[in-house]
């Protein structure tokens, strides 16, 4: 089964600064990406261009893409309508970026995205941001439930993401009251497989991933994908540096800030009782994160 993305050019918008693991068993992988720098600024324009097509792959199902295969303009309009008004939006850029990384970098095909289930541009759908699956080298599989957070402080973003996953797994809210969670998400996936253009064999396979059955030839484990966006500060004096010096300075600062968080992330995973799950973590810094994410999304969906 192929990934949803038509191409993986999205990754060309970034420099990969760090590939590392969070735990001693090298299960939890962290990938630090930084947008390409042009004239001492992150190249947001290039990212905006590279997100236009993936936005469609994320927002609509394979079935809808098939129906509109000869009407690219109408398909684009239908996808853009799924997004809330950008100026009131807090989360959907992170959700879109996580989808892109899971497909383009991890090669984990999308089963379902939250945005596909939205019936109103002002409606949030609870649960995971998206669900993907990954075939492992040993022939077993993982269902990957996504969570994205974008905050000024990187530690706040990670804490919020892991807390959300803890509540999602344990089907409780922040007050400890019951709410729909991972089991509801499974039923949601199963009920909506018909919205995708999976053939009968593919649907049977996906249902086996969601609800493993007796004498199955493979095992399935739940895993989590996390996207974290955070803010990196750049002074006016630093912007005056020669381009090569500026690039080295910012990359070094970003790497140092993320490395300083890794031990804390591992502790948080254990404190929330999530250490049995594999994590696929993607981290991207932004300047002036609040205005940047709104501007990026505005250009993508306008």
What does this 3D model show about the protein?
With 302 residues, this protein is α/β, with parallel strands linked by helices. It has one domain. 41% of the residues lie in helices and 20% in strands. The protein has nine helices and nine strands. The chain has helices at 44-59, 62-67, 72-80, 92-104, 154-170, 182-192, 200-210, 243-271, 289-301, and strands at 14-21, 29-35, 37-38, 41-42, 110-113, 130-135, 141-150, 220-231, 279-286. The strands form two sheets. A seven-stranded mixed beta sheet has the order 1-2-9-8-7-6-5, sandwiched between helices. The protein has a two-stranded antiparallel ribbon with strand order 3-4. The chain is globular, with a radius of gyration of 19 Å.
Give the DSSP E fraction (strand runs of 2 or more residues).
15-25%
Number of helices: 9
Could you give the count of β-strands? 9
Which H/E pattern describes the elements?
EEEEHHHHEEEHHHEHEH
What is the gyration radius calculated from CA atoms? 19 Å
Give average pLDDT, whole number: 88
Please report the distance between the alpha carbons of the first and last residues.
31 Å
- In the sheet with the most strands, the strands line up as 1-2-9-8-7-6-5
Portion of residues within helices: 40-55%
Q: State the low-pLDDT regions, or none.
A: 119-125
> What assembly state would you assign to the polypeptide chains in this entry?
single chain
The total tally of domains equals 1
Using the alpha-carbon principal axes, give the shape.
Answer: globular
The assigned structural class equals: alpha/beta
Largest sheet: 7 strands, mixed
